[in-house]
Amino acid sequence: MELLQNLLGTEAGLAVWTLLKILAIVAPLMIGVAYLTLAERKVIGYMQIRIGPNRVGPKGLLQPLADGVKLLMKEIILPTKSSKGLFLVAPVLSIMPALAAWAVIPFTDTMVLANIDASLLFIMAITSMGVYGVIVAGWAGNSKYSFLGALRSSAQIVSYEISMGFALVGVLMVSGSLNLVEIVNQQGHGIGGGSVLSWNWLPLFPLFLVYLISGVAETNRAPFDVAEGESEIVAGFHVEYSGMAFAVFFLAEYANMILVSALTAIMFMGGWLSPFPASWGALGASGVIWLLAKISLVLFLFLWFRATFPRYRYDQIMRLGWKIFIPVSLVWVLVVGAWMMSPLSLWN
Amino acid sequence: MLQNYFPILMFVVVGLLVGVGPLLLGWLLAPNRPDPEKLSPYECGFEAFEDARMKFDVRYYLVAILFILFDLEIAFLFPWAVVLKELGMYGFGVMIEFITVLTIGFVYMWKKGALEWE
């Protein structure tokens, strides 16, 4: 960094240094997205007693590359009836929030790009912009399927955002901060002297479940994927997209999955903290490897859900979101509040 | 203070570029052979007989309205939740009152059938 500042002057040096750090987050994330698509096909394959892709490269490891090249060489179709400008803006609108939210994700207590106090608020704000990509894409496509898909998808996303918000209120109550670094550090003491038992998932268990399932619904993943519903509305809001325009939507969907998994790991599963007590030496040491392990665990759950559950009907999805999750999370917020006021409070 | 937010602004710009880049690449590298059939909106094998921007169910609108209400409640709950430990019993009592009023509204809209999707 000092070298850069000497070369380019203080401000330009800082900007280039920040840009390098951003690329150090975005590049692994994109590779992660590419291999998540392969992992999805492999995992679901083995769950259905198939092998999954195994032709391109050793054990199919180059498959994502082949997919990328194929999509790159496909024509980007601009349908005559579509609104051309909006049609091209929509994919950009949907990938920007999925990436920009990573600016405040802490990987360890010092490894974070922007350690701001309102980081959780920023995440809430930027991720809720993702719905614009969906609405704009569905509208601009001017096809019945994309329109229906966009309506369904946006209503579902906003519904589950409410229960996610209530679950986060519970986390904020016990941690007393909007800063993600402090939210993780707070989980480091409590029952068991900072082990798996002191993390938020245990005292906030109902909120943890609500958050996890809402996360699946929020990213339009199976079993909540009526927005895509191949068998009824072919592909939902992005039915008119082809080539790289489709690929950008695809990247955004998988980047969002990784983001939701990272947030679940940070908010409820102790982030980079080790699941073992600190007295266990190397096993008890915290580190970025634990965060990655937890993110992978949640991502595996995403894939497992898709292989296991049949798709919900739309009315069932809305009932689950409004009539079950909102009351459950509201009640548990009050329970946690009363718990904190009582002498039995764990969070002093 | 504001300096902390600069990386976020840069990240937003990088996010936009990651969206625009592939589109440009695809436009440069991919073939472009338009054809009236190919460019017509997708419909199962026949010509689209009306504009796709048709009337839609009013319940989607209702969901949007309810979302704004509840999201606002959450925005009110956030600052309270952060300082609950300092507020103590009084702050908790006041918020119980707030959530009670919210729950009355919630029960009303439930009974009115605003959440039904037969």
UniProtKB/TrEMBL annotation, chain A:
One of its GO terms (molecular function) is NADH dehydrogenase activity. It is an enzyme of class 7 (translocase). Pfam families: NADHdh (PF00146). It catalyses: a quinone + NADH + 5 H(+)(in) = a quinol + NAD(+) + 4 H(+)(out). Keywords: Cell membrane, Membrane, NAD, Oxidoreductase, Quinone, Translocase, Transmembrane, Transmembrane helix, Ubiquinone. The chain crosses the membrane at residues 12-38, 86-108, 120-141, 162-181, 201-217, 254-274, 280-304, 324-342. NDH-1 shuttles electrons from NADH, via FMN and iron-sulfur (Fe-S) centers, to quinones in the respiratory chain. The immediate electron acceptor for the enzyme in this species is believed to be ubiquinone. Couples the redox reaction to proton translocation (for every two electrons transferred, four hydrogen ions are translocated across the cytoplasmic membrane), and thus conserves the redox energy in a proton gradient. This subunit may bind ubiquinone. This is NADH-quinone oxidoreductase subunit H. It comes from Vogesella indigofera (Pseudomonas indigofera).
UniProtKB/TrEMBL annotation, chain B:
Its EC number is 7.1.1.-. InterPro entries: NAD(P)H_OxRDtase_bac/plastid, NADH_UbQ/plastoQ_OxRdtase_su3, NDAH_ubi_oxred_su3_sf. One of its GO terms (molecular function) is NADH dehydrogenase (ubiquinone) activity. Pfam families: Oxidored_q4 (PF00507). The chain crosses the membrane at residues 6-30, 60-83, 89-110. It is an enzyme of class 7 (translocase). It catalyses: a quinone + NADH + 5 H(+)(in) = a quinol + NAD(+) + 4 H(+)(out). Its main location: membrane. GO terms for cellular component: NADH dehydrogenase complex; plasma membrane. It is a multi-pass membrane protein. It is found in: Cell membrane; Membrane. Keywords: Cell membrane, Membrane, NAD, Quinone, Translocase, Transmembrane, Transmembrane helix, Transport, Ubiquinone. NDH-1 shuttles electrons from NADH, via FMN and iron-sulfur (Fe-S) centers, to quinones in the respiratory chain. The immediate electron acceptor for the enzyme in this species is believed to be ubiquinone. Couples the redox reaction to proton translocation (for every two electrons transferred, four hydrogen ions are translocated across the cytoplasmic membrane), and thus conserves the redox energy in a proton gradient. Belongs to the complex I subunit 3 family. HAMAP family: NDH1_NuoA (MF_01394). NDH-1 is composed of 14 different subunits. Subunits NuoA, H, J, K, L, M, N constitute the membrane sector of the complex. This is NADH-quinone oxidoreductase subunit A. It comes from Vogesella indigofera (Pseudomonas indigofera).
